[in-house]
Hints:
protein biosynthesis; rRNA-binding
Amino acid sequence: MRLDKFLKVSRLIKRRTLAKEVCDQGRVSVNGKPAKAGTNVAVGDEISIRFGQKTVTARVEAIRESVKKEDAGQMFTIVKEEPTVEEEQASSNL
Length: 94
């Protein structure tokens, strides 16, 4: 499954167009490598997404073409959440 579609179906990112934009900006990596929207994801892959002030890493647990809202959380497991590097540097400079 394409990365942008997985992000939308799993509801890690709400809209597919937004998921594509985030990928194009270089804020998403799969298994430690920068990923484009068309990158294929498989069960067991780790996806890191840089949001505003945090980076979220999730492991792909299932691939489904469509899923109900309440079942979307079963498609991934959050491995870690950490502040972005810029946020850590800003707080250490205070």
